[in-house]
Amino acid sequence: MAQPNNTAGVDNTFRRKFDREEYLQRAREREEKELEGRKSKSKGPPVQRKPLKHRDYEVDLDSRLGKTQVVTPIAPLSQQAGYFCSVCECVVKDSANYLDHINGKKHQRALGMSMRVERASLEQVQQRFENLKKRKETGTFTEQDLDERILKQQQEEEERKRQRRERKKEKKKEKAVEEEIEVDPDVAAMMGFGGFGSSKK
């Protein structure tokens, strides 16, 4: 025997009904507010950023290498542990992350540069080749310079090692002097520390 079909008389009024026009109007109002906010933030025409360029300074990663530093929580950012970026006013904890930061988008934008590289023209490339050729001919760009620089670095490293050894020796001497305790001869004799010399008098 077949069951009667009761779906025709089911009341579905408890379901929520959405008014499409109302939600479209809300979306339009939200978009207008965002546009107004963007216009008020920009305060003028969009900024044209300069293309990327080479650094004209040496990145200092090892000046504080091997040095001890007292870190306090109330110290200014520039004196805290790590690498301080004065452009973005932040501290990065290690050298790899510091390099990532100074090569990154946020830092370059703070410097007024976009992440695009300027396309070199044919004349610029030819000029660069000419400059390199002149440097090679005049001897300012030779293997000898490279050898001299390597030798100079090795000498500086040896000098630093020598200074470290001297400082260690001085510290050992100071420590030895501090450890020498002045002992009263009567107390030393009582304790059996008479000396290690000969017993003959």
Beta-strand percent range: 5-15%
Radius of gyration: 38 Å
**Sequence of strands across the biggest β-sheet:** 1-4
Structural class: mainly alpha
The global form is flat
- Report the order of strands and helices: HEEEHHEHHH
Q: What is the tally of helical segments?
A: 6
> How far apart are the first and last residues' alpha carbons, in Å?
134 Å
Number of DSSP-assigned strands? 4
List the uncertain runs: none
Described by strand count, sense and barrel closure, the largest sheet is: 2 strands, parallel
What do the pLDDT scores average to?
79
Helix content: 40-55%
Characteristic key phrases:
49% helix, two-stranded parallel sheet, mainly alpha, 201 residues, 6 helices, flat
Write a brief caption for the model.
Helix content is 49%, strand content 7%. The protein is mainly alpha-helical.
What topology emerges from the helices and strands here?
Elements: H1 20-42, E1 50-52, E2 83-85, E3 90-92, H2 95-102, H3 105-110, E4 113-117, H4 122-138, H5 143-179, H6 185-191
Parallel strand pairs: 1-4
Antiparallel strand pairs: 2-3
Descriptive account of the structure:
- The chain is mainly alpha-helical and 201 residues long.
- 49% of the residues lie in helices and 7% in strands.
- The protein has helices spanning 20-42, 95-102, 105-110, 122-138, 143-179, 185-191, and strands at residues 50-52, 83-85, 90-92, 113-117.
- The strands form two sheets. Strands 1-4 form a two-stranded parallel ribbon.
- The chain starts with 19 loop residues before the first helix and ends in a 10-residue tail after the last helix.
- The relative contact order is 0.05.
- Residues 1-10 have a biased composition (Polar residues).
- Residues 192-201 have a biased composition (Gly residues).
- Residues 80-114 form the U1-type domain.
